[in-house]
Amino acid sequence: MDITVNILLTIATAATPLLIAAIGELVVERSGVLNLGVEGMMIMGAVGGFGAGYLTGSPWIGLLAAIIVGALFSLLFAVMTLSLATNQVATGLSLTLLGLGLSGMIGTSFVGQPGVRLPNLDIPVISSIPVVGKLIFGQDPVFYISIALTAAVMWFLFKTRTGLTLRSIGDSHTSAHALGIKVIRYRYLAVMFGGACAGLAGGHLSLVYTPQWVENMSAGRGWIALALVVFASWRPWRVLAGAYIFGAVWIGQLHAQAFGIPVPSQFLSSLPYLATVVVLVLISRNKRLTMMNTPASLGQPFVPDR
Amino acid sequence: MKKLLIALMTTAAALSLAATAEAADKLKACWVYTGPIGDFGYSYQHDQGRLEVEKALGDKVETAYLENVSEGPDADRAFERLAREKCKIIFGTSFGFMDAEVKVAKKFPKVMFEHATGFKTGDNLGIYNARFYEGRYVLGQIAAKESKKGLAGYIVSFPIPEVVMGINSFMLGAQSVNPDFKVKIVWVNSWFDPGKEADAAKALFDQGADIIVQHTDSTAALQVAEERKLHGFGQSSDMIKFAPNAQLTSLTDEWGPYYISRVQAALDGTWKPDNVWLGIKDGAVKLAPYTNMPDDVKAMAEATEKKIAGGWNPFTGPVSKQDGSPWLKDGEVADDGTLLGMNFYVKGIDDKLPQ
User: Which residue among A108, A221, A260 places its CB closest to the CB of B350?
Assistant: First the structure.
């Protein structure tokens, strides 16, 4: 029983940063913008969060700093692609490269320093109830934020007028513009929300997952988050499911190895990626459904013609 | 996509080459690293060695380095660039730079080249390596003494001889204390991914291991041990700050003395291509201060360290292979060639080696 609980806890920790970054990117893409800079924003959030936490001694200030750094860094992308109408793919890629390099430079003095860790939630009595206590009431704060964030984004996109407007911009920015909607302003806010989420995911890495700073510590998680958005066909609850499936397969294969199951470890390690491919194939079988879900003006630059 | 990124990053790394003032009378010594110097692991330790050279030889040398250079064809350009920039001696620090260095060394016969962990030499290309397995034997002995369940978790990167040699040496050390000692092995297929290393450590602890060993580069696994109030060993650098109650010792690389001696030889004009495999006795492999263990375990570890420094090889028979077939006869010592190509487990390891 204990081992099951522990495995579930490990899966939750592995899935949380993926979920948060992917939910942020989902909102960005729903507004019609493709930001490939998730990895860069995440690593900037990680170094910003670690740095602020390390210098002030407070993991909460660190977490807040991670969010702010992520949002500010994404502003760079927003100015380039929205105000200057540069190519989104190229700008996003350069944002990732810039983030990886810049974070390494900023973090030079943090290497080899133990940081601060965000404490797990611990409610007296309740948290010590077997199984449920630890799983529901004993995790790190970012886990709860990630679940709340998913629910909030779901509600926002599909139950509010502003959410509807955002989706309409993603489907056709020219029509939305003709209706008098401030396309660029909406997109600015969406991109910054995505940046804040990626920053928070990075903060989770350097303040909860592995409380330390090392160059390139995001190790490709931003790319996985990007894949998750497509995998989920731009639906928040599917992002949640996807992040947890990914986490479960990854942790599962580690346990399978430790258990001594005689399957080549290289194969087990590639399982999460294989699972992504299989699901993508299954989803894209139905062309109409895919078309319906994909934001139609995704990735196209928009220049208002007054 | 990933290839493109790597290519871009290498270019970026090449551009960020530390621009140092040219001075004709100074000897320029250069390094090529495969990782970022901020990894607090393998590349970090090599760079510490470079800094020691600067400190020890002061005005007589100037140094430069390239970090994040991917192994393979891209490395050619890195070495060629350094050679053209008047580097007199160039150290390539990763196995995968081997062919690039061989090629570039032929093109620049007046430049001195050194390659770590490889096996190809040339008229102006020497090789050097460290016997990390010597330290791993000591870790094995400590693990067998300290583990209450007689079960260690071992996090590893890739099934290359260096890593397999380490696992075997660790197990021989453990078996010398507790013949029934068991190990669980998890391959994470990465040298450096703190998240994955932490997950692997959690999985191993959840399955009953109470001591963790790693052949990956980050401090993540030790931090998990610290959280769970269990023990583990550091890797490449002393990680005690990250796990003050969990680290028993750390297997650290000290390249400084070797680099100083080679650059000094280059200065004196006595440099010749060499083939050295340094160990505990040369000070290249060091064990960080023994902590969080009783005095008798500490004394045992120190005695073993001394014995190895005195010339004893952990791979001394009788040793059988995993399937029970004999490998080393009583008193027979494994030769370096076999060790450098090791692709089998010794007896007592319940795991299938990925081939």
Answer: A260
Tokens of A101: 């390099």
Residue A217: list chain B partners with CB under 8 A: 194-195, 218
Query: B107 CA to chain A: closest CA distance, Å?
Result: 32
Partners of residue A14 in chain B, C-beta under 8 Å: 195, 199
Per-residue model confidence as pLDDT tens digits over B4-41: 555 555 555 554 444 444 445 789 999 999 888 877 88
Burial environment of residue B148 by CB neighbours within 10 A (0 to 12, 13 to 18, 19 or more) = exposed
pTM value is 0.85
Which tens digits make up the pLDDT trace of A187-212?
999 999 999 999 999 999 999 999 99
Q: What is the interface pTM, i.e. ipTM, of the complex?
A: 0.85
Element (H, E) at B214: strand B211-215
Task: Looking at the complex, report in whole angstroms how far the Cα of residue A114 sits from the nearest Cα belonging to chain B.
Answer: 5
| Nearest chain B alpha carbon to A266 | B189
Other CB atoms within a 10 A radius of the CB of residue A179 amount to: 12
Helix (H) or strand (E) holding A20: helix A2-30
| Residue B319, beta-bridge partner list | B328
| Mean pLDDT value across residues B67-89 | 90
Say yes or no for a CB contact (<8 Å) between A254 and B186: yes
- Residue matched to tokens 């003006």: A297
Please give the pLDDT value at position A11.
Answer: 93
b or e along A12-30 (b: 16 or more beta carbons within 10 Å of the residue's beta carbon)? bbbbbbbbbbbbbbbbbbb
The strand ranges marked E within B67-177 are 89-92, 112-116, 125-130, 151-156
For residue A4, give how far its alpha carbon lies from the nearest alpha carbon of chain B (Å): 9
The CA-atom distances, in angstroms, between B204 and each of A226, B152, B184 are 30, 8, 7
Q: Are B157 and B190 in contact (CB under 8 A)?
A: yes
Max alpha carbon distance in chain B (Å)?
62
pLDDT along chain A (306 residues), means of 10: 84 95 96 95 96 94 97 96 93 95 90 86 75 80 95 96 95 92 95 97 94 88 90 90 90 86 75 76 76 84 78
CA angle A186/A188/A191 to nearest 5° reads 105
**Chain B residues closer than 8 Å to A264 by CB:** 354
Q: Do A215 and B38 touch (CB under 8 A)?
A: yes
Rounded to whole angstroms, how far apart are CA atoms A163 and A25? 15
